[in-house]
Design goal:
four-stranded antiparallel beta sheet; two-stranded antiparallel sheet
Amino acid sequence: CIVFKGNDRKLSREVAIKVYIDKPEGDAAILSSFEDEISRLRAASHHALVPIIAGGESGGFFYIAMELINGPTLREKIKGKNGPLELELALSYVTELAAALAEIHEQKSVHGHIDSRGILFKGDKIHLAGYYPMTIDRISKNTTMADGRMTIDPVYIAPEQIEKPESADGRADIYALSVLLFELVTGTRPFSAKNPLQLAMMRLSEKPPSPAKLNPNLSPLLDAAILKGMSKDPARR
């Protein structure tokens, strides 16, 4: 996608407009599916969610217009930090994000793209943006094996989003949030590889390391919770 800064002429405010590159090609069922997803996402009103102002199709492209937040991203906040984030702070961030995701899931919807670059700060308050509707996922098929293109950041991608992207549901968000928590409390990511496709495929063949082995200050309960959230089988999360 590409994100633009635009103007809401009715309310005289700046907004962020996220335009998805994969086109609907005029398919009425796809258009209806996208509009339905946006409607359900807008119905989730948790204070940690960046509000969606509008969404639809224009000029052959899908778009979402959101509140513009100029604060730093979570990735920018942790960039260059030598070691894990303070445990209490990391847990407070993830608690807010989990509550926001719970509201999305209650609307029978999925965020689809948890990523530290799509988590923004307004003052000291954390906000979740980066929405990736499953309709877009179905158009792009998530991974185009022919050219190795990944449309979702492989750092946080769930195994089912690689194997059967059309089957992904809220449990993919749980996986991604668990990877994010792993990163915050250990100062490193559970998997690393030379290229994005290899990084994504590691989720299918390797087990993540124990977070507590990387950070002895973590309790056995938190260690187990993170690993449960990163189970390869969605039913175990």
